[in-house]
Model the fold of this input.
Amino acid sequence: MALSKNQLKLITSLQQKKYRTKHGLFIAEGTKVVEEFLNSNFILDQLFFVENNGYETLNNTTQISEIELKKISLLKTPNNVLAIFKIPAEENLLNNGFIVALDDINDPGNLGTIIRLCDWFGVDQLICSKNTTDCYNAKVVQASMGSLTRVSIIYTDLLNYLKNTSLPKYATLMDGENVYKSKLPKEAVLVMGNEANGISNNVLEVLDNTISIPRFGNIQQTESLNVATATAILLSEFKRLN
Amino acid sequence: MALSKNQLKLITSLQQKKYRTKHGLFIAEGTKVVEEFLNSNFILDQLFFVENNGYETLNNTTQISEIELKKISLLKTPNNVLAIFKIPAEENLLNNGFIVALDDINDPGNLGTIIRLCDWFGVDQLICSKNTTDCYNAKVVQASMGSLTRVSIIYTDLLNYLKNTSLPKYATLMDGENVYKSKLPKEAVLVMGNEANGISNNVLEVLDNTISIPRFGNIQQTESLNVATATAILLSEFKRLN
Done:
């Protein structure tokens, strides 16, 4: 069996958020990442493979040629399998625990890394502003390496959420309180801003606390830390003592 | 004036390490990154610009067209200027201070991020095994955002260096000592391993101590942390108390 025109059309369309939303579907690629989704609560829609890796026991699988996989894959080096999964329903917004909130993160690689970090550090929920990159974007799915299956991610009106939560809220800034000297609570919302513009002004207004990672270099010229590496350091600080 | 054939040939050749080494030259691109190199001790060889940003005061500059820049640029969206700088002589290997050592880091993005982190945290020297990606690779230059001008980077026989240094040596592993519970010295060598294979066995044999970043997630399935985010967290731990 080979790829039908309709399958090809569907797969191509899922590169766009508009069609992912319309169909409620997204794409995962490669043996390892697909396996993580298959072993999770995510529901498989269809799967396309070159070499059979036990995929015959699943429903809706299609064997395709290496050339066909190359045609539908977004990876530089396609890796045997491409699967379409259903986008799960979002969980309810949490008002307790430790939450990371993203204010318009643009770069899919950064979002993928942050999802992996949330998974590693056991973050209870990742809340994204409406303009944050879609977490079912192919690049995010590949960069998060299956962590998407274990992190609760919610897209919402961030300002509204922050106004209404009773958790202490931390703004990550270039000139906030030294994180190493701050007493950090176990339950909080840690807000990370856009790569170029930081946290937007209207969001900043509703936050209670500020934190920064101090610079140790002698020369005070270093560019700001990348948002994903800054998130790594701050999650480490919040979690190590709590 | 426009690009000569020889200039075009030189620029293209510098995409390969072989020719960077032969000519002792590398390429930096974009207004911001080029400015960081111009404001440093690095020596300019030639510079090509579309719009003049005060470049006329420099020697060996050539005005080129947008189309020519597109032809020689490796960036998706070329940004006004491409410059060729001389590769500086390496400094002497340090036997004191805080050193990061890389055992065969492959990914240019990871190396660029680590160089930025070394700059931020004031690491005294970055020592790379001979098989670590070349720091004058175009992707590393762009990812490190000018931090290359402020970090002392040395490529050497890593095993030999580690055998001979009297500094305490830390191996970053998946199952080492909990970094949050370790007493970390001010002066040390922190060794980070290859993305896929970790630290090689012969290097591991000469290291005194091991450290790990503990996992906080409930489900014990998370992939290992990316080497650049792990470096971020460990540098934060070594530096915050010292």
User: Anything to note?
Assistant: Residues 98-240 of chain B form a domain with the Alpha/beta knot fold (CATH 3.40.1280.10). Chain B touches chain A through 33 residues (CB under 8 Å).
